[in-house]
Amino acid sequence: MLRFDQYVRPKTTREAYDLLQQNRLATVIGGMMWLRLSDRTVPVGIDLSGCGLNEIEETEDSFVIGAMVTLGQLEHHEGFRQMTRSVFTNGVHDIIGTQFRNLATVGGSAYARMGFSDIVTSLLPLDTYVEFTGAGTMRFADFVNGGAARDVLERIIVKKHDYRASFQCLRNSATDFSTLNACAALWDGQWHLAVGARPKKAKFLEGEDLGLPARFSPEELDAACQRARDLNYGTDRRASAAYRAELAEVLSRRAILEAAAQQDVATELRLAAEAAKPKGVSA
Ligand SMILES: Cc1cc2nc3c(=O)[nH]c(=O)nc-3n(C[C@H](O)[C@H](O)[C@H](O)COP(=O)(O)OP(=O)(O)OC[C@H]3O[C@@H](n4cnc5c(N)ncnc54)[C@H](O)[C@@H]3O)c2cc1C
To answer: Which among 35, 88, 101 is the best mutation to test ligand 1's pocket, defined by most ligand atoms within 8 Å of the CB?
Structure first.
């Protein structure tokens, strides 16, 4: 069972950060869905729910997501869903159930960077930044690769672009962890690809590492998917490394092709509205 010797609910993230630095074993509490599974006594539990981080704000150039925003809140945010082509919504869709997603937070998920995370994989290929109280703002990809120890994550910022994007995953059964997941996004004329649940932390490919031009030939697509296949994979009870490598190639290809086939958001909305119109009855 998880126990706290002391529970604090600071009003500001600076206060939370200072408490975190004062005690090496102090622990930040997000939605507590993952933390509650541990069996230990924490000297100081720092609950961020009083710090005003539970809003999604749309600015001229970004969606600014407070760390305490729940997976459910972001999953159902229509503007964010449309812009990002549902990659987050599809990524979290099979995580346990509605009640769970209404408690687990985007910040707790991004900070923990779990190997199996669908959330990390869905946010990595977008133009995503994370804002910390101590370390300031950095690219999410740089944080996933190592940055910001013992800090308070305040916000996740997703810059606005005309994204073409798709999330794909394979689960052995509904609500199980992904056996492998992949997310591709095209923005600013560049492709970005994340492959996660390898089963280790997601890997991110872009630029020369991915080698995929905005408009690609079948051979260029084959080469990019081969690069996804060549990432390092591990074996666990869900799948072997060899099976994951196969999956990485297939899911990356599906994600890239699905994203590449998308129209701009306005056209897709118009086509969806036309398709939904009742058809005329002919005499
Ligand atoms: C049974 C189960 C099944 C799951 N299945 C999936 C799945 O299939 N796919 C998937 O992607 N995820 C899955 N998850 C993970 C889940 O989606 C969340 O990512 C996870 O619960 C963490 O979010 P939380 O808000 O509960 O964080 P918490 O449990 O509160 O915290 C997690 C960690 O992050 C730290 N932390 C939290 N917030 C902050 C912050 N703002 N700043 C700094 N540190 C912080 C905490 O100290 C802790 O170390 C699963 C979790 C559980 C319990």
So the answer is: 35
The minimum-distance atom of ligand 1 relative to the CA of 31 is: 25
Share of the chain above pLDDT 70, in %: 99
Q: How confident is the model at residue 282 (pLDDT cuts 50, 70, 90)?
A: low
On whether both 69 and 39 belong to a single domain, the answer is: no
- Number of structural domains found in the chain: 2
Question: From CA 186, how far away is CA 122, in angstroms rounded?
Answer: 13
Q: Are residues 100 and 207 in the same domain?
A: yes
Indicate whether 31 and 100 sit together in one domain. Answer: no
Question: For 140-170, how does the pLDDT look when each residue is reduced to its tens digit (9 = 90+)?
Answer: 999 999 877 899 999 999 999 999 999 999 9
The string of pLDDT tens digits covering residues 247-277 is 999 999 999 999 999 988 888 888 888 888 8
Q: Is the CB of 199 under 6 A from ligand 1?
A: no
What spacing in Å lies between the alpha carbon of 260 and ligand 1's midpoint?
Answer: 32
Partners of 180 in the β-ladder: 170
Query: What is the distance between the alpha carbons of residues 272 and 41, in angstroms, rounded to a whole number?
Result: 53
Residue 213 counted as domain residue: yes
Decide: 104 in ligand 1 pocket, CB within 6 A.
Answer: yes
Centre of ligand 1 from the C-alpha of residue 31, in Å: 7
Are 79 and 101 within one domain? yes
Pair 157, 132: CB distance under 8 Å = no
Residue bearing the CA closest to ligand 1, atom 34 = 108
Between the CA of 150 and the centroid of ligand 1 the distance, in Å, is 16
For range 61-71, the mean pLDDT = 98
Ligand 1 atom showing the smallest separation from residue 48 Cα = 41
114, 105 Cβ separation under 8 angstroms: no
- Provide the residue range defining the domain that includes 80: 56-260
8 Å CB contact between 67 and 153:
yes
- Residue 19 pLDDT > 80: yes
